[in-house]
């Protein structure tokens, strides 16, 4: 009936013998569209809440872009995804920065902003919105994580690790380690060693 | 997605402490769901039930009747199902030896109970934020040690 209505519209309008009012439930409408488009994509998902989709499998980027384009024609925008993609790019850049063995001759903020082609202010706000921590703090966390790995591997001395991670001195590394984790690098090493002894004893 | 919840569980026999703790979380920016237990037996009954939602972070008071924090810690560490839970020891003791021992036994975080509410809020915010980074950035949980 609804489909025919379009054809008869002019006629009806001219005579105005009959008028039909439509009422929409936007929630149902949106949900239906989302479900339809997602089924076309053919992947497993659940609708977690209003405007929130959880995928139960990994979706390749092309499919996500495809979906994004489909949604767009209905005025539906994939917000979180774009945000989290950029946040992931920031994280990747930080990993690159931290693991690089060459000392960096620009400030990390400049490096990140130039690499991702956005202003640092924008990136920095976005980052804290999504991750609840600042870029600066995240860099420190990553550096300390890398220091932990190097300490456990036992191949480099703390001085060498400090040099490798571009700290100005061992003292600087030790202080930042202690400030971030609450324990000293040597206590960390002791605990992990004891843990390993304990678990090899138990197994 | 950012609207994810962090599930948090606390076992503590002190009612005031439980109350402070839940209040502190309700004021944080990160979305959390908190449940509490009065002692180690109640806690382990909950965790061992296969239908329970396992917490992302478990806060254990050391001195509890029936089953204390260390006993819970050892039990949890023996069960692979609990591998993803970050364990925080929440205690009034600050003996160095004691702290190191709980870390060796598998605790990730050691918190000395603070005397005022604002410090508690600050500490919990820091713990949850750092845990969130481990959770979302694929950091190695085995190396997650934090003392506050």
UniProtKB/TrEMBL annotation, chain B:
Domain of life: Bacteria
PROSITE patterns documented for this protein: RESPONSE_REGULATORY
Biological process annotations from GO: phosphorelay signal transduction system
Keyword Flavoprotein among record annotations: no
Coiled coil stretches, renumbered: none
Residue ranges of every copy of the Response regulatory domain listed in the record: 7-128
Keywords: Phosphoprotein
Name this protein carries in UniProt: Transcriptional regulator
Organism listed in the record: Flavobacterium aquatile LMG 4008 = ATCC 11947
